[in-house]
Amino acid sequence: MKLMFVTETAEKIKSMEIRGAGRIAREVAEALRRYATEIRVGDLASFRREMDGAAQTLVATRPTAVSLPNAVHIVMSGIERALTLEEAQDGVILRAEQFIHSSQHAVEKIAQFGARHIRDGDTILTHCNSEAALGCIIEAHRSGKEIEVFATEVRPRNQGLITIRTLDDAGIKTNFIVDSAVRSFIHEVDLVIVGADAVTVNGAVVNKIGTSQVAHTAHEARVNVVVAAETYKFAPRTIIGELITIEERDGNEILADEISGSLPHVTVRNPAFDVTPAEYIDLIVTEAGAIPPQMAYIIIREYLGWGIEEFHKTFEINTRNED
Ligand code: RI2
Questions:
Q1: What are the pLDDT digits (tens) for 77-92?
Q2: Which residues line ligand 1 (CB under 6 A)?
Q3: What 8-state DSSP symbol labels residue 62?
Q4: How far apart are CA 277 and CA 265, in angstroms?
């Protein structure tokens, strides 16, 4: 009896009407909160079952942004320990509200910290549309620094358009370029700021396709690369060797089916994200402070609460269940 809005939220995430790793996480928390509020079940076991089903539907929408399973994990944690239906329901609602609030607060904190890395007179390059990265740029402008931005187009979904509208609204001087023009302009750039969909334990950053090319180009030109990422974008399961799945979307986002259909030897490949190794990243700005990418493990452990013991515990539970 899955309520319509859970499926609707899931569809909107899949189609990218709801997009951006942070926003996806908040919308998912909100969907779980509403589900827990409106669901009509008679007992605790049914509640757990229904909530698990909703959580699975939401997690299955897009595989890369780890903010999505992290948000679900945070909101659903404690549901197993609850002794009554009411306690379980209240717990989900409270944790969802807290998550949404702390996510918004994190984006504001990152804007403040990140803005300090931008100097008066800097030209900044950003790729895709990240509220965390844009927050830093807009805060630097708001605090009176004179800055200029290069924003990429971001094929195939053109998220760059959202970015330039936001920058224009803020009154920031902006240059709009195609993705392949980054190397042509990198010598006019002082700093690259991008967002993240996932940060792995070894400090690699998974972000919109093209980010690794941008970072590589910046590295070659000795331009610093800053990543703006809330702590819930760090991927705990990379501690035990799990890899981040890179979403590959439908080829028709790049080339219309009627054209590709007439080219039997052509396959359109459309990965939505790529991986930038830690060596191309100077700093990751989180709401807990700015860290070198090599310190990603500390964030996973201290701020998400996932140390290696957590996996041992999970492993023991799984083994017990199999006995
Ligand atoms: P914020 C987006 O993914 C982009 O890759 C962006 O850099 C990242 O999420 C983080 O965005 P998509 O949903 O959370 O456009 O900083 O595929 O807004």
A1: 989 999 999 999 999 9
A2: 19-22, 128, 130-132, 159, 194-197, 207-208, 272
A3: -
A4: 33
